[in-house]
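lol forgot to send this yesterday, sorry. struct tokens for the thing we talked abt
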């Protein structure tokens, strides 16, 4: 038996990248980034004018955003910082939507002043936010285009920390509040209600909760139009489609597109066609990235074996934060001598017991100190969630395209970290 390995990403040797850059580092495959985006684009084409807004928070490097923006992607933001990224990456304001429960007035102002008419939609999550936005738009002499985020109260059957469409989550407006907000919009002259949005959770591995949410969304449209006295232009179906980290069987992109078409497509029976927006993050970026790390020490403690690596929870927090699973493989092919596998924990150097990348994995018994490991499917919520905990400079990011590679974020230095504190 030979154990799985990943010597190269597209045509680029990860061992050579490790020589050049040091470890740890993130590497992304351009091909793997574009494949799901293009498949989604083709699958949703029957809608006429769909807009795929990439969830920037999943993987927010400027070069990654540029690649997607150049293919016609829009961007789904959750902060003013992400707005700056989207704009710098060349995304027109017409393709930007702004989500999140806690937009500050300053963030609202920046988004209102982006482009000629402000961004395509503020996805508003509370009446309080709606009023604040109305005031800010008035103060800027602008019209804010609003999409109200509906909380359809469905259980997405995912980890509780990434479920967002249940009534008890902080997200969205339940039906009553939604109708109230729709009526409020009609009273506020600087707001224009254009759409409704939902986003029920992340890493969904079944279409059933989405189907239920789409049905509830459709049902509420006429009521919202009546209360607001306006016809809607679009529905924003959020993101959340899962990827395969382990043994999950997430729905295919084709099945997802078929579901969207069934509910909102030309033959869906909607009284009037509505433009469809979607906000995928993980689906686009998740499988495109790997985190490459080097084994610093092998350690045995009682029955447990540890590979202590130079990447830790500050570099990739998903395992610590919500038990995220990532396959870990050797970079070098192990072949015949790598035959024997033993249960191993792959851990980092950070001073927390939750600092692990993988637990109880069957890894080659003789992976030596200095061996390179690749942590797979680390493109989404990997680097973008990284931190400087333990005063660890964050790793570089590299974009691989065929047989060439380009550093798209340099490694931070300790000096970078201290500079902000030398006042
Ligand atoms: C995080 C988020 C997304 C993307 O979720 P994925 O699971 O990465 O697809 C989309 N929309 C909103 C509002 C979000 O908060």
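and heres what i got for the seq, position by position
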């Amino acid at each position: 038996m030979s154990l799985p390995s990943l010597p190269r990403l597209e045509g680029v040797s990860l061992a050579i990248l490790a020589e050049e850059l040091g470890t740890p580092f993130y590497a992304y495959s351009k091909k793997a980034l574009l494949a799901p985006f293009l498949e989604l684009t083709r699958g949703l084409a029957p809608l006429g004018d769909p807009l795929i807004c990439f969830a920037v928070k999943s993987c927010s490097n400027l070069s990654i955003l540029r690649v997607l923006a150049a293919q016609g992607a829009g961007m789904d933001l959750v902060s003013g910082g992400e707005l700056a990224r989207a704009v710098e990456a060349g995304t027109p304001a017409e393709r930007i939507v702004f989500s999140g429960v806690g937009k500050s007035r300053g963030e609202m102002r920046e988004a209102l002043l982006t482009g000629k008419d402000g961004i395509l939609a503020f996805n508003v999550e509370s009446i309080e936010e709606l009023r604040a936005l109305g005031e800010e738009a008035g103060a800027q002499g602008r019209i804010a285009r609003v999409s109200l985020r509906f909380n359809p109260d469905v259980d997405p059957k995912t980890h509780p920390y990434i479920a967002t469409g249940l009534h008890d989550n902080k997200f969205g407006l339940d039906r009553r509040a939604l109708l109230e907000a729709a009526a409020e919009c009609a009273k506020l002259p600087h707001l224009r209600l254009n759409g409704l949005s939902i986003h029920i959770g992340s890493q969904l591995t079944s279409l059933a909760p989405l189907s239920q949410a789409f049905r509830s969304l459709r049902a509420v449209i006429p009521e919202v139009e009546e209360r607001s006295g306006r016809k809607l232009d679009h529905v924003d179906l959020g993101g959340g489609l899962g990827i395969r980290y382990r043994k999950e069987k997430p729905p295919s992109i084709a099945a997802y597109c078929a579901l969207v078409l069934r509910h909102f497509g030309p033959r869906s029976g909607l009284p009037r066609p509505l433009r469809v927006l979607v906000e995928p993050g993980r689906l686009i970026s998740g499988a495109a990235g790997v985190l490459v790390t080097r084994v610093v020490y092998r350690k045995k403690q009682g029955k447990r074996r540890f590979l202590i690596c130079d990447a830790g929870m500050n570099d990739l927090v998903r395992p610590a934060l919500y038990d995220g699973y990532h396959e870990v493989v050797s970079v070098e092919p192990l072949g015949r001598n790598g035959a024997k596998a033993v249960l191993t924990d792959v851990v980092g150097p950070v001073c927390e017991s939750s600092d692990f990348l993988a637990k109880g994995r069957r890894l080659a018994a003789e992976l030596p100190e200095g061996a390179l490991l690749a942590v797979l499917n680390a493109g989404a919520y990997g680097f973008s969630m990284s931190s400087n905990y333990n005063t660890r400079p964050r790793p570089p990011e590299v974009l691989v395209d065929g047989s060439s590679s380009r550093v798209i974020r340099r490694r931070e230095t300790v000096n970078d970290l201290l500079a902000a504190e030398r006042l």
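The radius of gyration is 23 Å. anyway ping me if u want another try
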